[in-house]
Sequence to fold (305 residues):
Amino acid sequence: MFDYLANPTRFRAITAVIFPVAVVMTVTAMCYGLYLAFFASPADYQQGETVRIMYIHVPAAWMALLAYLAMAVSAIFYLVWRHPLADIGARAMAVPGASFALITLLTGSFWGRPMWGTWWVWDARLTSMLILFFLYLGYIALADGFERPERGSKPASLLLIVGVINLPIIKFSVDWWNTLHQGSSVLRFGGPSIDPAMLLPLLIMALAMLGWFICISILRMNTLLAQRRLTALEIRGHSSQRGQA
Amino acid sequence: MSGDIGFFAMGGYGFYIWSSWGAAAGILIAVTCHSLIRSYRVKRQLNHHITDQNEGDHFG
Fold:
């Protein structure tokens, strides 16, 4: 499948169809999700209105993990099959992925302060999430840190693959260690323990964020492709000038 | 307390809830704008480059 997608022209044709669909999905889900999160869902019996932070915090955390996983899969495709488009995909997903990690950390802090009485605690879930954010930053620094961007692709891809070890640590940190963070209530054995009135806004917000992630990733991939083309044209321009002289 | 004030106060947790959503909205909007501006700039540069080259070919 990836071979089929790896042709930039075909990629542009496919994304020209996916992009508007993703935009519509994002806007619709965001509007419906905001309505559900603020008007059509109840306050929690223990946490009161602060439960409304969950509708942004939890989907952002899911997306931070999913985006990282997608980048790591792209990195494998790049390292094994040398598809430049896989590298461009990972690069395009880095900034939106990092923003999900940052949103998770910030909203978690704003939730922890009233509920736990602290903005931050060095427990397993919070620390492993912070490490994920730093992995994103490290990837961006490594991928963009070279004068010729392609030189950063291999070390940055390796960093992504090594960092995958952090994903199960984040997911199961609440089970493996005693943490202040609550346990899983949606993706757990025995089905979700969360009330449907709260599960629906959670899923709709997750859909909105997934849509946004797809839109931004496609946009950034196209920009990176255009950038590479521009660089190639410039190099060709210089060499032909030199040839004339 | 009127209904509106109650909605924004969020049972006394208004600061935390609106800060959370505000921070998230700010980040999502900033990344969207950054991506759009970069896309626009690079595509404009590319178009300039292509037209320049075509003109160069034509007059050269």
